[in-house]
Design goal:
This protein is of the alpha+beta class. It has a single domain (about 1-90), classed as Alpha-Beta Plaits (2-Layer Sandwich), CATH 3.30.70. The chain is about 35% helix and about 30% strand. It is built from three helices and four strands; from the N terminus they run E-H-E-E-H-H-E. The chain has helices spanning about 15-30, 60-65, 70-80, and strands at about 1-10, 35-40, 50-55, 85-90. A four-stranded antiparallel β-sheet has the order 2-3-1-4, covered by helices on one side. Helix 1 (about 15-30) runs antiparallel to helix 3. It is globular, with a radius of gyration of 14 Å. It starts with a strand and ends in an 8-residue tail after the last strand.
Length: about 100
């Protein structure tokens, strides 16, 4: 299982535009093979910091996702809305024995 955290710093005046564009992208991504979760969250300390939390079967699922029409459409909108480049982190569960 692969988890992804993508942090987007959004221009305040473009926040609503990005959120609207995210709707179709999220709906389509949730239908993609290997996608278990794809959620957008707002930081409580900074409403212009948006965070995608994603859960995928594997990294192999990401290439078709990146090339999808809905990601390309979202990327075009996001490019004009972001105040900084996105910070993307790939995460896997730590093997911790809690016995």
């Amino acid at each position: 299982m692969l988890y992804i955290r993508a942090v987007l710093m959004v221009k305040p005046e473009a926040r609503d535009t990005l959120l609207e564009a995210a709707k179709d992208c999220i709906a389509a991504t949730l239908q993609e093979p290997g996608c278990h979760e794809y959620e957008l969250h707002t930081s409580l300390s900074d409403p212009n910091r948006l965070v995608f939390f994603e859960k995928w079967d594997s990294e192999d699922c990401l290439e078709p996702h990146r090339k999808s029409d809905h990601m390309r459409a979202f990327g075009k909108v996001a490019a004009g809305c972001l105040a900084a480049p996105p910070r993307i982190e790939f995460i896997t569960p730590a093997k911790v024995d809690v016995k």
